[in-house]
Design a protein that fits this description.
5 strands, five-stranded parallel β-sheet, 355 residues, alpha/beta
């Protein structure tokens, strides 16, 4: 598209998390702006390429989810130093790490209406050095409705020298009127072999360990790196899950209340991640009852626990359990009181786990 100078005004790279969509978006922006590109890639040495590599290209605008600060509008420009550091250290764009970098554990990063207003103002100006101004937007599904409505006119009737390149993990959550006006490109998950090779080449992981991690990572480099890291969030989540199941089985209400207080202090994004992790383990435990080992995607620690726990997740309770966890995710996303949500969840598990 770039070589033929037939670039759509709005491109959406859509696919699962951990598939380097945003790295591809950045590479395309650099290719478009490169003054000495080849047929296959940007040169990497011209002034424009060097500016892209240091995240300082004057005709490239970054838009991404942020958190509100007291007395200030919530715009991406105020977070650029942290953003540049994040991009340099996390090319796969781990959203949990970005949330941690924002230093507000209870916040749910969003793209606010002030961002849309700012982009309209910036894009009305003439490009500084290139033929095109490029907006690199990460996670457009996190636009607030007010912002999406502001952006709609830009996407629907763009300036002739403006290109939007968006990268989305959950395209179904994008405002339909914006989604329908983009040129959509699907970015597929990596194969297990590709994940394994990446771990071996980039981190020196032995083949057996790399293959084991790749098998449970669901084609996501982010998941693979989490499993690889020492003291990863997965081990913390597994411990929380095991405690919830054991205490629920024993119906120890006092201890379950303390458990709910502990997890309420984690912050909303980690809480939703934990709830999704629990749903994955329930699914794996249910599948384990089929006695077809290749179908299970578990770490050795998860498998050791699930081997004994799986009989408690069966056709009588699995759908009800999944439903209450869906409700908990919705409640946490809506900023409900986490202590109440998790204690309610724990009490319901006491009733369901022995069905």
């Amino acid at each position: 598209m770039a070589d033929a100078d037939r670039i759509p005004h709005a491109i959406l790279l859509e696919g699962p998390s951990g598939t380097a969509k945003y790295a591809l978006a950045r590479a395309m922006a650099q290719y478009i702006h490169c003054t000495n590109r080849s047929e296959e890639d940007s040169c990497g040495v011209c002034a424009s390429c060097k500016q892209h590599q240091s995240f300082n290209n004057a005709d490239t605008y970054y838009s991404f989810p942020v958190v509100k600060r007291a007395g200030k509008d919530a715009i991406s420009d105020d977070f650029l130093p942290a953003w540049r550091l994040f991009l340099a250290e996390n090319p796969m764009m781990d959203f949990q790490q970005w949330t941690a970098a924002l230093d507000n554990i209870n916040a749910q990063p969003r793209i606010y209406v002030e961002e849309g207003i700012g982009l309209i103002r910036k894009l009305s100006l003439t490009a500084m050095a290139a033929d095109y101004k490029i907006v690199l937007m990460w996670l457009p599904e996190r636009m607030k409705t007010e912002c999406a409505n502001k952006m709609l006119k830009l996407v629907e009737e763009p300036f002739s020298d403006t290109i939007f390149i968006m990268a989305s993990d959950n395209p179904r959550e994008i405002l339909p009127t914006i989604y329908s006006r983009t040129q959509r490109i699907s970015v597929k998950r990596y194969t297990d072999a590709e994940v394994s090779d990446y771990l071996s080449m980039s981190y020196g992981v032995g083949k057996q360990q790399a293959d084991d991690i790749a098998r449970i990572s669901d084609g996501s480099i982010i998941n693979a790196l989490r499993h690889l890291s020492t003291g990863s969030s997965t081990s913390v989540q597994l411990d929380l899950f095991m405690r919830l199941m054991r205490l629920s089985y024993q119906r120890k209400v006092r201890e379950l209340k303390a458990w709910s207080v502990e997890i309420a202090g984690m912050g909303r994004e980690p809480q939703m991640s934990f709830l999704s992790y629990c749903q994955r383990l329930f699914r794996e435990n249910f599948i384990m009852n089929l006695n077809i080992p290749p179908l299970n995607l578990l770490t050795s620690a998860e498998a050791a626990f699930c081997a004994k726990f799986s009989p408690f997740i069966n056709e009588r309770n699995v759908l009800k359990i999944n439903s209450i966890f869906d409700d908990a995710i919705a409640d946490i996303a809506a900023n409900a009181n986490a202590k109440i949500v998790f204690f309610d969840l724990a009490i319901k598990m006491c009733m369901l786990i022995k069905m």
